[in-house]
């Protein structure tokens, strides 16, 4: 049985696919059209990076280039989940900011990556469980009280204080002085969100229906745990990590830890 693999790449290493016409001959028709359609260069680079990571993953899985590039080899499920018509491998894609993520497995899998940023309270109120929302509120209040007590005489801006606080937490984690579940309210919010997204993308359900009843309040601080839906533990297993200010979540059916690969090469016409 092959291990689940997760590939990550920065779009900073990707050239605009419109620059090189030979990409049209290399990519399957549906992928080429999807890649060059966006008006913004960054969106085109994201599409190309996603395809490149999937291509690399499929080749490493032992799938021939002819099958990978065959027109009509891919399709989208009822709620937009991309799949291969030949189900020899399952995959999922995600992107946020400058990063693109690709996960592959023998079984259904979902992945999500999000840049850690300010809490969107209306979103949390709408989609999170009562326990999750209350946790964020309590954590936010604690941080506010700490900030009021620590910055009265510091003269630093809010942004400087936030950066300094996160750097201090990271240093303490590295020294082993605080547990993994010591995080900011922004990080906790992002964790709840990527866990949800990875589950929805794994199941292939619509966003609204799949989010109903989900609760990940007990998963914080766990490196390998299961969420709940309507009070019952989910069968799926979740893996999480932080990378360069981003949160990543993988939802699958295997208990073994996924293999994580960061691709640092440059994608341009030389790839061909």
Automatic annotation (TrEMBL):
Keyword set includes Lipid biosynthesis: no
Composition skew (Basic and acidic residues), residue ranges: 153-164
Signal peptide: none
Keywords for this protein: Transferase
A single GO BP: lysine biosynthetic process via aminoadipic acid
InterPro entries reported in the protein's UniProt record: 4-PPantetheinyl_Trfase_dom, 4-PPantetheinyl_Trfase_dom_sf, P-Pant_transferase_sf
Molecular-function GO terms, alphabetical: holo-[acyl-carrier-protein] synthase activity; magnesium ion binding
EC number per UniProt: 2.7.8.-
Domain of life (superkingdom): Bacteria
Domain 4'-phosphopantetheinyl transferase as annotated: residue spans: 174-251
Record has Transferase as a keyword: yes
Region (Disordered): 148-171
Family (UniProt): Belongs to the P-Pant transferase superfamily. Gsp/Sfp/HetI/AcpT family.
Designated name of the protein: 4'-phosphopantetheinyl transferase sfp
Gene: sfp
């Amino acid at each position: 049985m092959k291990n689940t693999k997760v590939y990550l790449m920065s779009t900073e290493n990707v050239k605009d696919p419109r620059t090189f016409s030979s990409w049209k001959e290399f990519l399957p028709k549906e992928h080429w059209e999807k890649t060059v359609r966006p008006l913004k260069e960054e969106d085109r680079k994201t599409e190309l990076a996603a395809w490149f990571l999937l291509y690399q993953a499929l080749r490493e899985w032992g799938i021939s280039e002819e099958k990978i590039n065959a027109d009509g080899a891919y399709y989208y499920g009822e709620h937009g989940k991309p799949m291969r018509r030949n189900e020899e491998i399952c995959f999922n894609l995600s992107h946020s900011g400058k990063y693109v993520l690709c996960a592959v497995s023998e079984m259904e899998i979902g992945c999500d990556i999000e840049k850690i940023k300010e809490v969107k309270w209306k979103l949390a109120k709408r989609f999170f469980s009562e326990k999750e929302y209350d946790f964020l509120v309590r954590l936010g209040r604690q941080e506010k009280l700490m900030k009021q007590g620590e910055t009265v005489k510091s003269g630093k801006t809010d942004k400087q204080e936030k950066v300094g606080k996160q750097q201090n937490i990271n240093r303490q984690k590295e020294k082993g002085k605080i547990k993994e579940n010591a995080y900011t309210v922004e990080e906790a919010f992002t964790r709840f969100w990527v866990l949800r997204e990875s589950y929805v993308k794994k199941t292939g359900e619509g966003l609204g229906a799949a989010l109903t009843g989900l609760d990940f309040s007990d998963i914080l601080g766990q490196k390998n745990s299961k969420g709940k839906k309507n009070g019952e533990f989910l069968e799926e297993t979740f893996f999480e990590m932080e990378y360069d200010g981003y949160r990543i979540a993988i939802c699958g059916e295997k208990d073994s830890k996924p293999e994580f690969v960061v691709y640092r090469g440059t994608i341009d016409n030389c790839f061909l």
